[in-house]
Amino acid sequence: MDAFNNFLTGTITLFSDPMGVLIFFGGVIGGMLFGAIPGVSMLTLAAILLPFTAHLSPEHGIMLFSVIYCTGVYGGAITAILFNIPGAPENAPTAFDGYPMTLKGQAGKAVGAAVMCSALGGTVSTIIMMLATAAIADWAISAFGPPEIFALVFFGLAVAASVGAKTFWKGWLSILAGLMVAVVGLDPVGGIERYDFEMPYLLAGIHFIPTILGFFAVSEIFVQVEKKVKGDFVAPKISVDFPSLSELIAHKFAVIRSIVIGFFCGILPGIGATLAAFMGYNEAVRWSKTPEEFGKGKLEGVISSETANNAATGAAMIPLLALGLPGGALTAMMVGVFQMHDMEPGPLVFINSADLVWVVFAAMFFANISILFIGFLETKTIINLLRIPFQFLAPMILLLATVGAYAVRGLTIDVIVMFLAGVIGFFLRRSGYSVAGIVLGLILGKIGEQTFAQAMQMLHFEWSGYLDRPIAFGLLVAGVLTLCGSIYGAFFKKNRRPPITSG
Amino acid sequence: MKLKKYIASIGVVFATMALSANIAYAACATDGLASSQAKPDGFPARALTMVVPYGPAGGSGQVAQGMATAVSDLTGVSINRDHKPGGSGTVGMTAFMAMPADGYTVLEHIDDASSAHALDSSKPNPAVDLIPLVTSQITFSQVYMRVGDDRFNDWDSFVKWVKAQNGRATIANVSKEGSMERVTMKFITDATGMKIQQISFDKGAPRYGALAGGQVDALFEQPGDVRKFLDAGKFKPILTILKERPSVFADVPSLTDAGLDFDPLFRFRGFYVHKDAPADRVKWLQWAFQKGFCQPSYQKFNDSKYMTLIESYRDTAGSRKLIDTTVAQYREVYKDMGLEVK
Q1: Does B83 touch chain A (CB under 8 A)?
Q2: If 0-12 CB within 10 Å is exposed, 13-18 middle and 19+ buried, where does residue A80 land?
Q3: What is the ipTM of this complex?
Q4: For the whole model, what pTM was predicted?
Q5: Which of A40, A153, A201, B266 sits a CA distance of 20 to 30 A from A163?
Q6: Any chain B CB within 8 A of the CB of A331?
Q7: Topology agreement, domain B3-139+266-337 and domain B142-258
Q8: What are the pLDDT digits (tens) for B189-204?
Q9: Can you name the CATH fold of B142-258?
Q10: In angstroms, rounded to a whole number, what is the distance separating the alpha carbons of residues A92 and A177?
Q11: Could B213 and A145 be called an inter-chain contact, meaning their C-beta atoms sit closer than 8 Å?
């Protein structure tokens, strides 16, 4: 009851202040737009706005960033679906089925599903956040240490490899290629320089955002150019036929499963929405009776990915607010907003700034609801981007992708990496390898290597230490079983694997 | 441990200790500087760029923002921060060294640049290849335990408990080879005879989460970075790695109290310009950044980060002395640790 009263107070505070309302809607629309413009993302908007938040009140500054977070994660789905260009890493799995749906003339249905599921996943996650932030945060950091996170990453990779490519071997080779790229740069434990070829910029490692832009955006343009040259190019059909309620109800288990997965991944510091989206998608394939339909334009693929990544947004606020532990790049920037106002996110926020917390909670709740309404209106407009002739759209996307790649760290090497990934992706996609698998290997490889090293240090370099940690052990066993199942399928049940062509 | 080798560092330590005190804003180090400075030939005619080799949310990102705001408020000159994280500061340093030495680009960097040069002299020496404008943060480290942990409650009981674990106790740390943290932990373990497994966390959030969640037994950190946990009563310092107790941590044993006879290493952050930058521009930048240190906004920021417990300010000459001493100190330590010093 206290939570409900606090929520009402936060809501009244939010909407009784004209400036607050202006910033709220500015954040909602800005997040959606920056998420939906190919090449830039909510992080770009957040980085631009960060210095200006010093001139806002703490409530307005934090609220703006939390609203951008909610709507930006959804906005990235639009480009993933329309152009095969994920607006952010957490939208990558959305492209697997979303883009094939666009090619089949079902763009409206895919975007509509993204709108509804993003709103649903985000809203449920926000409600749980409001009810039990402190308790969940304490549980998450005590139950999930490096051994558990490494085991989760291993399980995620095992599942991803089993659904990521045309064959078992190509799936694993794709993942392993990503893992190899992930080790470029300083090692996370001893700071040993690896594969830098005496180029200091390589010490920073290969960042996954330019890689994603290369594999998805640049290579997609190459593919379309090739089709144009060969005369095979067919402009995507435009449709605004949103999914019916019965279609969404038919996927209720996928939605619930993805909310649980998304929320669970979101509360782990440093993990966040990307793993949530991949895990949500992978589990949808694993539980499906028709896994072979995934990757060819199956609505459930979009639903699972988008529900999970938005469910992670509310959850990611839990370690941030309760413990001061940011889960990703945007929540790390929110720490900066707090500090600009002489505040620190953490346990004292609930005591010293309870009003602020509940304004932020209310804003996140209504931001997710706004996705439903503003998202539908925006979709009807933005889907018309598909009407732009390819010869104008392609250079625009390339330009924005180049800016987006450089903006991450201000390094020219990231632009080079993006174009290299584009060329490599162009050839890999036609050979049945999974570029999504490479990206996942890269993202999870960095987390996995670090947590593996930490886990082995914690367990005194004894594998048997995992036996004393039931969650980690359970996840490792699940990963091994998944791996065995894939090997069995590869040798004894040929042609059962669903080829994911868009990835 | 042949501590006599580190005599070279004593000057710095004594100078730092002598200035230990809560520094009142009214008596700031650069109050004696002129309140304004003529721009040499109109410099700067446009915004300055500040290369920051770390992300915006960490300690370096925050100090860069604090100083950029202070200097801009003072001079009216905008400062664009260009974050180039990666390679433990190597990437930002490389990018900075490749930029024109015209005074329009300044660099924020930490003591890692000094320790990197100590280990490999082919890497830029901040005291020689750069001109320090100001060192604006110098801080010490502490060892923390989780409040509510009933296995130990102070430094003595912690050491006793760790020894009883026979090498199975853990401490969260930034365990990059040759880092200030790892070197200091070697001093501590050598001096106490305890064995403790260091768990490497390169980012703050998972490191603090590891102690808060009971994944590790202790944490090595600087007080400003964990202030929110201290204020919330979640973490408790059990050892201050200084010769004397700062007043704020009067009930926490110092190295002297704990019988640990080694000279502490400090974390320091400062601002630099390329050594080939025109002298008149360097002079203006020195004035702006040294004066910026005493801007109320910057002093307030430093105070919030426990950066006023020991004197955080060094001018150009003081910064060079600090860097030279630090490099010499690390070189001796590295040789003693068996690391290859190039």
Answers
A1: yes
A2: buried
A3: 0.80
A4: 0.78
A5: A40
A6: no
A7: yes
A8: 999 999 999 998 877 7
A9: D-Maltodextrin-Binding Protein; domain 2 (3.40.190)
A10: 18
A11: yes
